[in-house]
Design goal:
binds flavin-adenine dinucleotide, globular, about 375 residues
Length: about 375
């Protein structure tokens, strides 16, 4: 940190300490940059705390898959850190119909093309892997390398690492204005230097030209039932819920936590800013889950919560410089994949900031696309 006429000067001011801002602060300090982090609330307490923490290679969009694949590689560094609660449980994608099963070969090819191994699972194998599944399912696809983590702990760990390398943390402070080369906080103090806006769903408060819509989700968690299921289980129809234009949708997505608890999702809903639990949505979600795992009915739920996914115009995050704004950068809009893709996002951002080539093509994520 430097000092210019009483204003502290940084190489990068990170607004927002969710998993994305935390990953950027961690990566920037690892490069030797002088970093400030501004977070008005709890570190990792926004969408990051609400997430399932599934690290998953989704193949629906080639750009999204490239970023997920790159990030999954980077997650390996965290696999042995106890606080991260990394568990390589893999994902078992479940087909309900022959039509869904017929699409699996193409999915395996798309994943294989970027080096993610996935295997076709026939009916017998499906029930051998997960005996609790309902009878009559058509098979599936197994991706053994997918994993789960505990996202708020990861955000805290990365902020601690950044601070250990000299980053200045301003908690309880909000960035409220961006002026030429300066960031104004809500206590009227200023910080000077390039700024990275990583404020998730609050992005448009500072950068109204980059649309982000909050997409509400519900999750339910149970008591501990060890070995009820062993893998993250997701219906193959999940992508329809992610990409569908429906205002509200549910899909079966269930995760065995390392604690033995079962985390049950998921719902997606635009057009609401209320964080209240909607029991009718939870009921829809659970009815869907019971269709795949009838034994779930016997388990005791202990908590339900909601969160908001920051959804960009096309589901891909905005990563890079903000057009027509000198020294303003953005890393936000990761929708339902921001835990998986936070690490790769941070690398792409840092590469652009330091004007060097990235491991993957950064073009699909440039904020300029929102400017038409
Ligand atoms: C129900 C649910 C389940 C999910 N499951 C998964 C999953 O299994 N796998 C996956 O990969 N992703 C998942 N996601 C998506 C993931 O949680 C998000 O994409 C990710 O957390 C976004 O991180 P972020 O840092 O951009 O946002 P946030 O975590 O919301 O962080 C933004 C931060 O910015 C701060 N902030 C706001 N305004 C300002 C300001 N003016 N100045 C400074 N700071 C500010 C906020 O306080 C907040 O801490 C899920 C999301 C939800 C809601």
């Amino acid at each position: 940190m430097g000092n210019r006429r009483g204003v502290k000067v940084f190489d990068l001011i990170v607004a927002g300490a969710g998993i994305v801002g935390a990953a950027c602060a961690d990566a920037a300090t690892a490069e030797g940059l002088r970093v400030a982090i501004v977070e008005p609330a709890v570190i990792g307490g926004g969408a990051t705390a609400a997430a399932m923490g599934h690290l998953v290679a989704l193949d629906d969009d080639p750009a999204e898959l490239a970023l997920a694949r790159y990030s999954l590689e980077l997650w390996e560094e965290f696999a042995e850190l106890p606080e991260v609660q990394f568990s390589r449980c893999g994902t078992l994608w479940i087909a309900r119909s022959e039509r869904e099963r017929d699409g699996i070969a193409a999915k395996i090819a798309r994943l294989g093309a970027v080096g993610v191994a996935a295997g076709m699972v026939d009916e017998n194998e499906l029930y051998r892997l997960e005996p609790a599944l309902a009878p009559g399912l058509a098979g599936g696809m197994h991706v053994p390398s997918d994993a789960v983590v505990y996202p708020p702990n990861v955000a805290r760990l990365m902020i601690e690492r950044a601070c250990g390398r000299g980053a200045q943390l301003y908690t309880g402070r909000r960035v409220c204005a961006l002026e030429a080369g300066t960031v104004v906080l809500d206590d009227r103090s200023s910080l000077s230097g390039p700024v990275l806006i990583a404020t998730g769903c609050a992005l448009t408060e500072l950068l109204p030209m980059l649309p982000v819509r909050a997409r509400k989700g519900h999750l339910v968690i149970t008591e501990r039932y060890r070995d009820f299921v062993k893998r993250q289980l997701v219906e193959l129809g999940y992508a329809d819920s992610v990409h569908g234009g429906e205002d509200a949708s549910v899909a079966f997505n269930l995760q065995p936590r390392p604690t033995g608890q079962i985390l049950i999702g998921s719902s997606r809903e635009f057009g609401t800013t209320s964080s209240e639990v909607s029991m009718s949505t939870v009921r829809r979600m659970l009815v869907r889950a019971f269709e795949f795992l009838p034994g779930l009915r016997r388990l005791q739920a202990v908590r339900i919560w909601t969160g908001f996914r920051p959804s960009s115009i096309d589901g891909r995050p905005y990563l890079g410089p903000v057009p027509e704004r000198r020294d303003v950068w953005v890393a936000a809009g990761h929708e339902g994949l921001g835990i998986t893709t936070a690490l790769g996002s941070a690398r792409l951002l840092l590469d652009q900031l330091l004007a060097r080539k990235s491991a993957i093509d950064p073009a699909p994520y440039l904020p300029a696309r929102a400017f038409g």
